[in-house]
Amino acid sequence: MDELESKIQPPDKVPNTLSSQEAARDRALVQRAQAGEVEAFNELVEAYKTRVYGVLYHMLGNREDAADLAQEVFVRAFKFIGSFRWEANFYSWLYRIVINTALNFIKGRKEPTLSLNQWDDQVEGAPVMQELMSQESVHGELDRGEIQEKLNEALQKLSKEHRAVVVLHDIQGMKHQEVARVMGCSVATTRSRLHYAHQQLQTLLAKYL
Amino acid sequence: MTNMNCKKARPLFSLLEGGELEGQVAGGVREHLESCPECRGLATRTRRVQALLALKRHEQPDEFYFRTFLSGFHRRLYADLVQRKSLWGTIRAAFELDQRAGFALRAATFCAGVALVTLSLYTSHLSLQTNTEQLAMNAADRLSRNVARPVDPSWSGVAVADHRAPARTEYVLDRVSYSPTLHETAVLSF
Predict the structure, then answer these.
(1) Handedness of CA A172, A177, A182, A188 (dihedral sign)
(2) What is the pLDDT of residue A168?
(3) What is the tens place of the pLDDT at every residue in A27-85?
(4) Taking CA atoms, what residue in B is nearest to A125?
(5) CB under 8 Å to B40, separation ≥6 — which residues?
(6) Minimum distance, in Å, between the CA of residue A104 and any CA atom of chain B
(7) Do A70 and B69 touch (CB under 8 A)?
(8) A62, A132, A200: which is closest to B55 by C-alpha?
(9) For residue A190, which of A180, B121, B146, B149 is within the disulfide window of CB 3.0 to 4.6 Å?
């Protein structure tokens, strides 16, 4: 297993679990927002806007739709924050609104249209990217644009539920229990959906594996 | 864990990779991977897929986008609160209907309203007609009873009650054959 592990670099871990400081900050802000303080809600928007946008973008594959829906998510959160009773942390509650908004949007749209954000420069340093760029495809060396497009096409081919667990776990870095809480299902269901999604992606991205 | 097989181990690869598996289960999966080349290959490919997916974290929006996010949110919130003041806006928001669905709902509600009004008018018309007929029948009945009619039993063969003479009240004792002799009890016969 050690030999195996040394061959493949693990993906970068995004720290997406709340620290106790962040949890305390959220609690204070939510209580103030529930009391009617708009400024407190603005702070919550500033704290979570990037993550909310990120989930929507990865779910929809379209930056314009993601931008539109991200604001819609916060409008809904503002309207329903009065009924939030700390059954889970605010972060999980907000993510549930994000996922439900994305799933409803996907259900209503006819054909997905990819509209991708640019990769930042840090992507060049990712080990898997370096390995891919050095491979030769049938038509010559792979370029970043092709890899990005194929990756997003593959993700859009998953069903919306499978895509959601992949986005939350593999891209957002959430643990299985958190994903299960956000999706409103059991950990076992999350696990089996993730496994199935990985199998499908392996088939769709076989050329790059 | 000796009872780990391919079917049980495969869904656990991502958990093992993420450090979410511990103790015996983690040990069992590792043991299985060492002994099963097929699962080892699958685990490798799964890690590659996860590494590719992690590249998506580098897809970032335009820097300008997040500068105007808060103001955009407030504009949208204001528009939403203003729209909700209308009844149809509230219903549409509650059921998350798009414009076409909202129009269909309005049309259906209008048709249902028209049908309801028509039905209630028809029902009240029927009931009015019935009441009128009933009143007419009652009046005719009263009139027929108050008019004096000659009684000729041979003609009709039916004994017709003489409404001119007041009816005699009948008592139960009229039917009783009573022998008013001492020490005799009345014999009741009907």
Answers:
(1) positive
(2) 95
(3) 999 999 999 899 999 999 999 999 999 999 999 999 899 999 999 999 999 999 988 88
(4) B55
(5) A4, B33, B34
(6) 9
(7) yes
(8) A132
(9) A180
